[in-house]
Amino acid sequence: MELDDLKSAWAQYDKKLSKNLIINEELLKSINFEKYNHALKKPMNLELLNIFIQVFMIGLVTVFSLRLSNEIPYLLTGLIGALMCTISLIFSAVKVNRFNKLFYYHLSITNFQKDLTHFRIFIMHLRTIEYVIAAIMGITLFPMMVKATSDIDLLGNLTVLIPAICCALGIGYAFGICLNIFVYDKGIEDADKFLSIIVKFESEE
What we know:
mainly alpha, 90% helix
């Protein structure tokens, strides 16, 4: 009788232990999924910030272009710069939309990983174009901003304009590359890492 009681007690204990292990695994998966979401929000917030900046820049460039509308070279640089800002805004809006799709809870982990991989490839393809757009914005908007704010004609003085633009682009690219490496790409890499941990939990079940 004592042996039967011991077997019964052990069976109940084993059942509770299995249940607790399942709960712990689900909790760990949930925690890692929250970390995945948090990691993705970092690059997405950069895109939201860029949207805000580009909206502001389009408005500012429009005002400056109207102010300098009697000077054709500055009007043209303003229009080109505004176009580049608009394209950058559209790119960020598209990426934010793609980010939002990566937060859907009803997808399987496999689909999450597949979508995240496709998104990383998409970002790499866009990044080359974005670097070109950034260069065009710097070349066109820098002299126009200087002219509109201080009435200095940089377009008529290439010996000053070229070094100034090279310096501005160098600083801008250095800052942008650092953001991409240490915030944007790291956020996506961390998200992928947390998904891999969840996959490992599921494969062990």
